[in-house]
Known about the structure:
Layout: H1 6-13, H2 18-27, H3 36-45, H4 56-77, H5 84-116
Amino acid sequence: MFCVGVEQKENTASRQSSVDILSELDELPPPATLTKAATTSEAASTPTLQPRVMTASDLAEQQRTARASEEIARASADDPYANPANLARLAAEYERLQELVDSFAGDKTRQVRHTCQ
């Protein structure tokens, strides 16, 4: 024989059928998010993704952009002043230009001395 406790009797008394629950839902007003005005204002303020068909020219442009960004990243990763060959060439050009400037300055001082005498 099955014995029903007091707590179980209270739970069975408060149970409702699914038909009663659905009829109560029909009587409630619709939530604000489902009204027509709310959905149009939300749609206007919410960005949505649109599908896009990629053409051959779009794909080629995307690949060119990717290659260019890779080249920029590769070029900016190297420090040109860390290369010893570049530093040697820079030092040689500096010395050559310094000699050139000194020769022009020497010519001017010689001309000034020559005219003053």
